[in-house]
Design the sequence.
């Protein structure tokens, strides 16, 4: 895997929101989007509607807001990541072993937890980008920052 910093506007939209940890979210998304609730394009098209945003915030705020404002957490994590050799020299991405050796092993701050459990993106055979892990966190982040700052930088990992 490799780490990269991309703009929030370039994150993929989720291929469905809700799973075992979020049964109410899944149920509400299925009700809103019907049988196509797990289709990435359907989620993209519905993402900025009032209904979608309401469900997203009602279902995810309690879990994510305990650690602080998600945009502050991601900003701090991304800024720290950009001090790692490679990023600091302007590289588009940094190998996982280089990244892990430069980041503190034990962490307790919420932004450092983002560094240890960074959302993972994959690329399909058709070239589309999708979430392997982290679609809930990044969707919650996107809902706060993308409309006012589409170039907001986000640390992610790419599955190779």
Sequence:
């Amino acid at each position: 895997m490799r780490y990269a910093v991309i703009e929030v506007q370039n994150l993929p939209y989720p291929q469905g929101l809700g799973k075992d940890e979020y049964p109410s979210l899944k149920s509400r998304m299925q009700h809103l989007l019907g049988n196509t609730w797990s289709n990435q394009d359907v989620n993209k098209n519905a993402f900025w509607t009032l209904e979608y945003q309401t469900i997203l915030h009602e279902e995810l705020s309690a879990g994510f807001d305990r650690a602080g404002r998600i945009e502050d957490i991601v900003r701090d994590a991304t800024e720290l990541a950009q001090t790692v050799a490679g990023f600091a020299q302007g590289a588009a991405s940094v190998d996982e072993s280089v990244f892990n050796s430069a980041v503190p092993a034990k962490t307790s701050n919420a932004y450092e937890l983002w560094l240890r459990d960074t959302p993972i993106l994959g690329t399909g055979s058709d070239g589309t980008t999708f979430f392997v892990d982290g679609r809930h966190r990044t969707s919650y982040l996107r809902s706060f920052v993308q409309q006012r700052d589409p170039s907001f930088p986000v640390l992610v990992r790419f599955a190779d």
Q: What stands out?
A: The beta strands are 2-7, 93-95, 120-123, 129-133, 153-158. The chain has a mean pLDDT of 89. The longest helix spans residues 50-65. The longest strand covers residues 2-7.
